[in-house]
Amino acid sequence: MLDIYLRHIGDDGNKLTTGQSSDINEAPFPLTASAWATIHKHLETPRFGFLDDMDEDSTWFRILTKRGFDTGILLTGDTFDPSGYEFRYRARLPWCEISSEHSILSVSVPIRFLTDHGADKLRDLALEFAEHLPFTTGHAGLSLSFTWGRSRILPIIKNELNRHPGWDVPNTGATMDLGNQIDGIHWLNFLGPSVLEAVGGAQTLRSRLSNPDTTVQELTEGRALVSLGAAPLAGDTKLDEPNPLLAYRELAQVLEPWLQPFRPFNTWSDFTEEETRRWWRRFLD
């Protein structure tokens, strides 16, 4: 997956310069040639067998089960000069039996990548990932980036965030056990076999979506992609009143039973519970 990402962004050594790994070094480190080699090794080669076969008193068993994931990698631009490019991966714990835990892959590009290369380039990247990943759910669209400073930045942009519902606030730390729930409504919405079957299949889903900007594309292995327009939109409640992003709202209504619900522990710093809940349900209420 990392090689696919690097190929699409045309990495020239300046877009990703800093790494952080749960297995190499908890502190950020420069992405030297040797660091890149080590990262690829950790991503490509399983280091342990199943946890079920490990001694529960062993150091690694305690470490892995306490942190809740296996390998974790974060690659970004410079700490003090973010490039807008980011590659983040967390691998589920290697249990013998299938569990509700899921691995998480999250990648970002700056908004100028969209303006320079167009939305089709982003769609191609998302579709190539989907081709190689046995996903349950996935998405692509406009998203804020909080490698660091999330709790400080969110209160500052509260008014702009509420004005532009098309921007997503990623819930990076709480989706390892997402199961068959869907993490919000986005420009591109990927539904895996279990989720697609639960909503009635691609044809049923297509029949329930009437917005002309919406398309439902069937993918291999019983999966589908729901696209909301040719390009991601931020929306503007001041310009598009009373109902901006109608395609997003329609899809939210159809998928509501499977959307990840708001819970009080999701409340953001300096937001009231009600303020966070209203944003969480911005396409529903």
Into which percent range does the helicity of residues fall?
A: 25-40%
Q: Give helix and strand order, one letter per element, not per position.
A: HEEHHEEEHHEHHEHHEEHH
Into how many domains do the coordinates divide?
2
Strand order of the largest sheet: 2-1-3-4-5
Uncertain segments are none
Measured by DSSP, the beta-strand proportion falls in 15-25%
Mean pLDDT: 85
Please state the structural category. Answer: alpha+beta
Question: In DSSP terms, counting alpha (H) and pi (I) runs of 4 or more, how many helices?
Answer: 11
Query: What's the shape?
Result: globular
Radius of gyration, in angstroms, nearest whole number: 19 Å
Largest sheet: 5 strands, antiparallel
The number of distinct β-strands equals 9
